[in-house]
């Protein structure tokens, strides 16, 4: 049984698309805010890949988001204010997340294992009522998921072996990387993360340790496993 649960955040815990579109609509009225949000997010992986591949040193995601914001704004023919980049600190949680995490927090250590920086994750936790015990992930590893050291650095920080830590994510590739590093895995689908036409991560792609429809069901499953008599 896991002693700690670490979580992907963007998409798994919070609805980035609706939240970012709302912030864009306020800061840049007259644009297609959803299209802008999708374009901004599309720059996410390429920006991190330059770090993962060694093309540039570690740069916190706050700075990558700001760079990507101006890149996308130029494409849309507008000038975006720098403060719009902080919208990634004010993303709303999926409805099941606060109650599910509150239940899980009674029995497990909880922490993000996100590509977001410590500052970003701390401010997002306050906005979205995410009861983390600590902030883990990219900044302590100085690299980005799915590099194995990001998951392993989180385990090391918790002073737990990987097999006592479970990664929770809505993305199959995240879980595949965590499993390869020796962690437990839990899949919670977010079928509208990318909007109504989403085609990716609708179903588990492997036999993850736990597959649950939401965080409340995940909590119930872990509680049931904890109470199950041993052999």
Automatic annotation (TrEMBL):
Any one GO molecular-function label of the UniProt entry: (S)-2-haloacid dehalogenase activity
Gene3D superfamilies linked to this entry: HAD superfamily/HAD-like, Putative phosphatase, domain 2
A Pfam family annotated for this UniProt entry: Hydrolase
Keywords: Hydrolase
EC number(s) stated in the UniProt entry for this protein: 3.8.1.2
Stated family: Belongs to the HAD-like hydrolase superfamily. S-2-haloalkanoic acid dehalogenase family.
Function statement: Catalyzes the hydrolytic dehalogenation of small (S)-2-haloalkanoic acids to yield the corresponding (R)-2-hydroxyalkanoic acids.
The name this protein goes by in its record: (S)-2-haloacid dehalogenase
Lineage of origin: Bacteria, Pseudomonadati, Pseudomonadota, Alphaproteobacteria, Rhodobacterales
